Amino acid sequence: MLADKHILLIIGGGIAAFKSLDLIRRLRERGARVTPVLTRAGEQFVTPLSVSALAGAKLYRDLFDLTDEAEMGHIQLSRAADLIVVAPATADLMAKMAQGRADDLASTLLLATDTPVLLAPAMNVRMWQHPATQRNLATLRGDAVRFVGPNEGDMACGEYGPGRMAEPMEILAAVEASFAAGPLAGKHVLVTSGPTHEPIDPVRYIANRSSGAQGTALAAALRDLGARVTFVTGPATVPPPDGVTVVKVETAAQMSEAVQAALPADAAVFAAAVADWRVANASGSKMKKDGSGAAPALQFAENPDILAQVAQMRTGRPGLVVGFAAETDDVIAHATAKRARKGCDWIVANDVSPGTGIMGGTENAVTVITAQGAEAWPRMDKAAVARRLADKLAAALV
Ligand code: CTP
Fold it and tell me: Model pTM?
């Protein structure tokens, strides 16, 4: 149920706008109050009268409507809602949002708001797949904007593929999910994930095989329990989840800075596979063979131990600090020693020997080491490990 929830619904210009009329009806059936905003382009597809009649509320259309400014300024309008839903979200609206433009009422509201935003994109397949739209999508995801759809199917323009707006019932489910007050509502959780890249010269780097899959699944699971998640990620192969604040970094030093900047947090989980060493004599220009056959002598300097730095903070330490330990032998013994050495509360240990297929794979078998001892969990999907870990974290934080 959405009783007492106030939804600001922005209807963009697309053939899918007709589905938004049904969405208004369904939102209201569940007790939500809907304030509609119709863009100029949206007016080409649905009439202002039908929108305001179905919403049972005043329709907002123009930024420079002075009567409206006196009644309720655009800033206030953007913040009075509990959630802003943009359906259909056109390629143009997404581009404006990604750039922070404010040249009409809809884009101004989206820029002025501090309310969560849910987008239901709808556009032609090629427009959706265009690198510009995909760039905007990644930017918006990084700004913690959530998405529902688009779906794949036949399109009004006669093409087939992703671009159809999600159905009203799917949008409704996403709206309800965003209000599900999980046990981590109001908590800020920081998650590091992925590998780091340590440059040797402008074209070469030292890396590791981490895909970022476990950290990504964990960030999604924490988000699903209602946490506000800051996701600091190295160059992972798995895309970051929706609805979290994404901070992309390359090196361990950058990850350390990003983590410090994201604090304070109620809990911090360090799932990143951080390089222990960086190249101290990295070259500013590409290293060349000198013809003598001599290999370049790389010198290494130790990277900051990000987990240990946070775990050992005297003031402002997150209430719960969780590290990971990727080991290939004596897993429990090494991980127990690591927990004590780094000063974290829990260590999630896993065996990443090549035979296990865990590093870069879809499953994980972990042992969670806490002050109470070691808990061995059965081998399961990384998403299942993430959910169980998120539940354990939520239970510890209350
Ligand atoms: N970690 C970190 N910063 C580093 C190195 C590691 O935050 N510079 C974190 C990882 O994210 C992980 C944990 O520390 O949560 C364990 O990292 P690992 O590299 O396995 O431990 P090491 O300290 O390198 O121990 P060892 O070299 O013995 O494996």
Answer: 0.69
- The answer, yes or no, to whether residue 208 has pLDDT greater than 90, is yes
The two structure tokens encoding residue 267: 């809990």
* pLDDT single digits (tens) 232-260: 999 999 999 887 888 999 999 999 999 99
Ligand 1 pocket test, candidate residues 270, 300, 353, 359, most atoms within 8 A of CB? 270
Q: What is the pLDDT of residues 156-175, one digit of tens each?
A: 777 788 899 999 998 998 89
Pairing verdict, β 117-121 and 146-147: parallel
Any idea which residue has 């649905």 for tokens?
A: 46
Length of the chain measured in residues = 398
In one-letter notation, the amino acid at residue 48 is P
Rounded to an integer, what distance in angstroms lies between the CA atom of residue 187 and that of residue 225?
A: 10
For the segment 178-199, the average pLDDT, to the nearest whole number, is 91
CA angle (168 as vertex; 163, 169 as ends), nearest 5:
115
Structural domain boundaries in the chain: 1-179, 180-398
- pLDDT of 71 over the 70 cut: no
Catalytic residue among 157, 180, 301, 333: 157
Whose C-alpha lies nearest to ligand 1, atom 12?
324
Residue type for position 348: V
Judged against a pLDDT cut of 50, whether residue 66 lies above it is answered with no
Per CATH, the homologous superfamily of domain 1-179 is Flavin prenyltransferase-like (3.40.50.1950)
CATH superfamily of 180-398: CoaB-like (3.40.50.10300)
CB-based contact 350:271 (threshold 8 Å) = no
